[in-house]
Amino acid sequence: MQQQLMGLLPMILIFVAFYFFLIRPQQKRQKERTQMLNALKKGDKVITIGGLHGSIVDLTEDRVTLKVSDNTRLVFERSAINAVTNADETTTPKAEQKKEEKKEEQKEASESK
Predict the structure, then answer these.
(1) Which segments show compositional bias classed as Basic and acidic residues (predicted)?
(2) Cα–Cα distance between 79 and 100 in angstroms, integer?
(3) Residue 94 in 3-state DSSP?
């Protein structure tokens, strides 16, 4: 019985490693992408999967209309949106913390002069 368990142990360890290094991170990225697509709204500046930059002017459940230039509007599937580039949404908590630390350092440096 113990030999059978010892024989299965490497397979179980490989599965656990695959789960934590491949499956779980992919599920997390997919969840973040779904949340980003559901949070789209008119006026957002976005980048498509093909690299096209534009602003959302119309939004339906399946499609997004982007204003690329003054006279050009293009319709894309919602899933073709790769990233939202609004300044308030692209800053991460770590980036904000670094900015605050730099401001504090500059403030301390100016006060010591």
Answers:
(1) 95-113
(2) 35
(3) helix
- Note the pTM of the prediction, 2 decimals: 0.62
Question: Domain locations in the chain?
Answer: 1-38, 41-92
**20 three-class SS:** helix
pLDDT at 7 (0 to 100):
86
- Contact, 77 vs 62, CB < 8 A? yes
Backbone angles phi and psi of 64, in degrees to 5:
-130, 130
Q: Which helix (H) or strand (E) holds 11?
A: helix 2-18
What residue ranges in 13-97 does DSSP mark as E strands?
A: 45-48, 53-59, 63-69, 72-77, 81-84
